[in-house]
């Protein structure tokens, strides 16, 4: 899988997403741990704290990868987009169950958050050149 050249704007957003993921990971282990536990859907057959710790580990790895492992930025961007897809059911559960966490204490606030998940997925793919990679592989 070949990396495509990315623009300064793409690099800015890639690094920003990396910092966002590292910050979120720190929250998983510390001051936002209870909020993250509140997002784990009840149908997940694992201890909520374990899910929060494991997802925090994945987040810190993806964040570091987004910033520093540019040789594999397309693959890391795809992995981050898939991660965002995988945690989306937690955001949906928070909305459906009316769970207050992260200061999202109204249905409107929780719904607005749902809208931003596809934006994060797009940014993970665009900022790493993964969208351009998919387009170029279709024409090859």
Which residues form runs of ≥5 with pLDDT under 50? none
What structural category characterises the helix and strand content? mainly alpha
Order of helices and strands: HHHHHH
| General shape | elongated
Number of helices: 6
Question: Based on DSSP secondary structure assignment, what is the total number of beta strands?
Answer: 0
Helical residue percent band: over 70%
Q: How would you describe this structure in keywords?
A:
6 helices; mainly alpha
Q: Short summary of the structure?
A:
With 140 residues, the chain is mostly helical.
3D architecture notes:
- By secondary structure, this protein is an all-alpha fold.
- 76% of the residues lie in helices and 0% in strands.
- The protein has helices at 8-29, 33-39, 48-68, 73-97, 107-127, 130-139.
- The protein starts with 7 loop residues before the first helix and ends with a helix.
SSE layout and pairing:
Layout: H1 8-29, H2 33-39, H3 48-68, H4 73-97, H5 107-127, H6 130-139
Helix pairs in contact: 1-3, 1-5, 2-3, 3-4, 4-5
């Amino acid at each position: 899988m070949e990396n495509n050249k990315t623009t300064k704007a793409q690099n800015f957003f890639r690094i920003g997403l990396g910092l966002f993921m590292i910050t979120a990971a720190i929250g998983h282990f510390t001051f936002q741990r209870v909020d993250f536990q509140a997002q784990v859907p009840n149908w997940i057959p694992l201890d909520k704290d374990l899910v929060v710790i494991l997802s925090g580990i994945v987040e810190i790895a993806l964040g570091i990868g987004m910033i520093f492992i540019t040789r594999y930025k397309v693959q890391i961007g795809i992995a981050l987009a898939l991660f965002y897809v995988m945690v989306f059911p937690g955001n949906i559960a928070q909305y459906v169950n009316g769970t207050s966490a992260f200061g999202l204490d109204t249905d409107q606030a929780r719904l607005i958050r749902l809208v931003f998940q596809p934006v994060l997925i797009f940014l993970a793919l665009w900022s790493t050149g993964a969208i351009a990679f998919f387009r170029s592989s279709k024409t090859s």
